[in-house]
Amino acid sequence: MNRTISLALLTLAMLTGAQPAGAEHEPHYPFYFGFSVGFPSADASCDYYGYNCNNGNTGLRISGGKQLHRNLALEIAFHDLGRLRNERSALTTTAEPVGVNLSVLGIIPFSDSMFLYGKAGYMATDVRYRRFEGGVTSSTDKTENDFTYGFGFGFRFNEIYDFRVEYERLTDLGDEFVPGGDHVTSFSLGGTIYLE
Predict the structure, then answer these.
(1) Count of beta carbons in the 10 Å neighbourhood of residue 71
(2) How many other β-carbons are positioned within 10 Å of the β-carbon of residue 93?
(3) Model-wide pTM > 0.85
(4) How far is 153 from 155, CA to CA, in rounded Å?
(5) CB-hemisphere CA count at 13 Å for 21?
(6) pLDDT tops 50 at residue 23
(7) Which domains does the chain have, with CATH numbers?
(8) How sure is the predictor about 20, in pLDDT bands with cuts at 50, 70 and 90?
């Protein structure tokens, strides 16, 4: 995952390079930073098998990006997806995913202050799995690498702040969490500030 972080930061750094001649007459698209609180879940397989998963999990995301065009942005985000639980009879398993996601955003503004966006990207995630059964605890650490996507709605105010509501399909979990694996989705609320 360190290589993924380094590549993402290098890409953002390259975007700060010198502007071509005449660029001062072009629209200004700033860098931005954001923070959000999400509600990750991994309940597709859990619902199918009748397991009791999640139980009110909360996650956090810190993001930074660069708007390249009124309809395009590049974003890197750190996700802490909290602790996902799967309880079935005498066995309880948990997953604690932490990862970095690099995404491209397609933006559709429909007023000066409101916009819709879709996103697609790649996420490298470190997951700690724990298994509790009959008083015995075991743990496993794995790295997952997955395609991600999402969509959201944003409202801009005072020209430099956004409020965003977003849905994302993030990393996949393995058999260590639930037989056949499962994917993590997250609904989040957050804010963004643009740097002039």
Answers:
(1) 13
(2) 22
(3) no
(4) 7
(5) 0
(6) no
(7) 2-10+30-195 (2.40.160.20)
(8) very low
